[in-house]
Design brief:
Oligomer: heterodimer
Order of helices and strands of chain A: EEEEEEEEEEE
Distance between the termini of chain A: 37 Å
Shape of chain B: globular
Order of helices and strands of chain B: EEEEEEEEEEE
Distance between the termini of chain B: 41 Å
Number of strands of chain A: 11
Strand content of chain B: over 45%
Radius of gyration of chain B: 13 Å
Largest sheet of chain A: 7 strands, mixed
Radius of gyration of chain A: 13 Å
Largest interface: A-B, 21 and 22 residues
Helix content of chain A: under 10%
């Protein structure tokens, strides 16, 4: 069974540009989460989808960040326009509904560098 | 708010030494508790979990016991190996349906 995949693995962009990160969860996992780790700090929650609905987006830093999950499968996280402080590693995780809803499987992360 | 305090690293041990990484937390509701591990160049992997008080999670020789009275979930291993070198994250899954992470503890094991 394929794990959580993320694309790209690395992205280097200039301040003011737009970047879109993609996450493909494990097939059948209705819960999808985005987290990020900025340099030297803890991994922080960004948002949580259940199927195509945003369950909790309290961790989104500002309105430059937009997450979507059309059709309840893969998700995208767009940063527009990117700022220097957005640099970090963005992780996606998925989990099933039901008994093991809290057991999250993480993707390898996308390392974003904003110059 | 919810938070995790995890012992700072890096921790450097010789092979076969005993490992303890302390973790305490504050969280809403009755969280499930997890330890994740990140090996060099890889993503986060679930190491072990415990879902209720006094449960012991274990995997690959690592253990941690859910201590509700002290809100702790310390990670232990009796004899570490070089291959255990990684970053370890204490991570409660809270009543808010999200995981909160400690800062991570980097472990170096010398042969």
């Amino acid at each position: 069974e394929a794990g959580v995949t993320q694309f790209p693995s690395h992205s280097v962009i200039e301040k003011g540009q737009t970047v879109t990160l993609r996450c493909d969860p494990i097939s059948g996992h209705d819960n999808l989460y985005w987290y990020r780790r900025v340099m030297g700090k803890e991994i922080k929650f960004l948002l949580h989808f259940v199927k195509e609905s945003k369950q909790d987006e309290s961790g989104m830093p500002n309105n430059r960040f937009l997450a979507e999950r059309t059709g309840g499968t893969y998700s995208t996280l767009k940063v527009q326009p990117a700022e220097l402080e957005d640099s970090g590693v963005y992780f996606c995780a998925s989990s099933p509904l039901g008994v093991n809803y809290n057991e999250q499987f993480f993707g390898p992360g996308t390392r974003l560098t904003v110059l | 708010g919810d938070s995790v305090t995890q012992m700072e690293g890096p921790v450097t041990l010789s092979e076969e030494a005993f490992l303890t990484i302390n973790c305490t937390y504050t969280a809403t509701g009755y969280p499930s508790l997890f330890w994740y591990v990140q090996y060099p160049g890889e993503g986060l992997q679930l190491l072990l979990k415990a879902t209720k008080a006094d449960d012991k999670g274990s995997n690959k020789g690592f253990e941690a016991t859910y201590r509700k009275e002290t809100t702790s979930f310390h990670l232990e291993k009796g004899s570490v190996q070089v291959s255990d070198s990684a970053v370890y994250f204490c991570a409660p899954y809270t009543g808010g349906f999200k995981t909160i992470f400690g800062a991570g503890t980097r472990l170096f094991v010398k042969a």
